[in-house]
Amino acid sequence: MSVNLINLIKDQLGPSVVSQTATQLGESESGISKAISALLPAVVGGFANSNAQSDIFTTLKEIASSGALSSLAGNIGGKDSLISKILTLIFGGGDKQAALTSSVSNFAGISNDSTNAVLNLVTGATAGSLGKYINDNNIDISSFGNLLNDQKGFLYSLLPAGFSLGALGLGNWFGTDQEKVNIPPNTPANEVQDVPVVETPKIDVTRSGTTHEIVSDKDSGGSIWKWLLPLLLLLLLGWFFWKQCNKKAEPAPVATTDSTTVIVDSANAAGDTVAVTKETTVVTLPSGKTLQAYKGGIEDQIVTFLKSDDYKNATEAQLKDKWFNFDNLNFEFGKAVLTPESQVQLDNLKLILAEFPDAKIKVGAYTDKKGDEAVNLKLSGERANVVKSAINSSQIIEANGYGSKFAKVPAEASDKERESDRKTAVRFVK
């Protein structure tokens, strides 16, 4: 059974990532969402059709060995040399990548710079998912090639309505005609006699970059199905993606994350959801630099506190009980593995610390009372150290896990009630 890597990648590009990216780039969420929907099949198709799969495999293995996979997903800065290298390997050169960026920019209604940033984000998520799969399953180059080839069968239905890669010379990236009419491989001929064959026009790209269609001799006097069936399929596909684009983004489930920003109560049999609306704001640092953050969130609170006399005059004893909770920091459920969107807030905190070089902090991680206390204590300690490593600042002097030591809600309470005890926080020390 083929592994659908696209679903693994899409899990990293959910509504919260779209919202955060739109805020950082100053674009609409709908524009960012459309750009992702167009770039994802192009990037996955680029991996699957690259002539440099061996180099890609080697690069992903090296990244996985160095532990840099987590830094790829969520990267929209545009200066990551690893992502630049991967883009060169899958697109082969600047012309094809530039043409793709321009086309997606027009389709999504966002700027070229923003489109390039989203391309970095999608490429990072794809490379991160591939690298993790390689690492977790210990696959070789041959299996890697088969894995990428299998993805072609999933790409055809992923293209958004109104967007085509054919004009870019990438129309052959989506597998065979057999896949397009959903005829499984190895199906006996007597079982598919009544299935009309849809012939894909061959596109020839001239040296000048223009394209023309090469018409087969079999086209003359052909059946009406040769043009009617593709038209019906396009109309159906367009209706489907129109419905998808107009569907409101649903809150992300908590099945794969563990954080204080719980949106779905996993212990609730009815599956009730709680919509969380956060207002963004601009946090101004002493140097004049600005950060996009949630109003009243950890960045906003810390900068306000560090600028105040309360911090300047505070003693160590007074600082001991003043913790600042992360509000956009998530871990994979039951693991000390940060989710991609968490890096944004960690990078923000690192910038804040750099602006206040005399400030020193301590990281603390906590769990609720459910489960074995020894396991909770170990998990919280690992998470605290993961946060310390991710921020990577000498101003973090300590990182401790406290398990459920300070939890107040009984283990028998609902997941929603226990969420206040599950947190990661920092405090200042002197």
Short note summarizing the structure:
With 430 residues, the chain is an alpha+beta fold.
Overview of the molecule:
With 430 residues, this protein is of the alpha+beta class. Helices cover 47% and strands 11% of the residues. The chain contains 17 helices and ten strands. It has a four-stranded mixed β-sheet. A two-stranded antiparallel ribbon has the order 1-2. The longest helix is centred in the first third of the chain and has 26 residues, at 112-137. The chain is globular and about 80 Å long. The N and C termini lie far apart (57 Å).
SSE layout:
Layout: H1 5-10, H2 15-25, H3 29-49, H4 53-66, H5 69-72, H6 81-91, H7 94-108, H8 112-137, H9 141-155, H10 177-180, E1 202-205, E2 211-214, H11 225-245, E3 257-259, E4 280-284, E5 290-294, H12 298-307, H13 309-313, H14 316-319, E6 324-325, E7 330-332, H15 342-355, E8 360-366, H16 373-391, E9 396-401, H17 415-418, E10 423-429
Parallel strand pairs: 8-9
Antiparallel strand pairs: 1-2, 3-7, 4-5, 6-10, 8-10
Helix pairs in contact: 2-3, 3-7, 3-8, 3-9, 4-6, 4-8, 6-8, 7-8
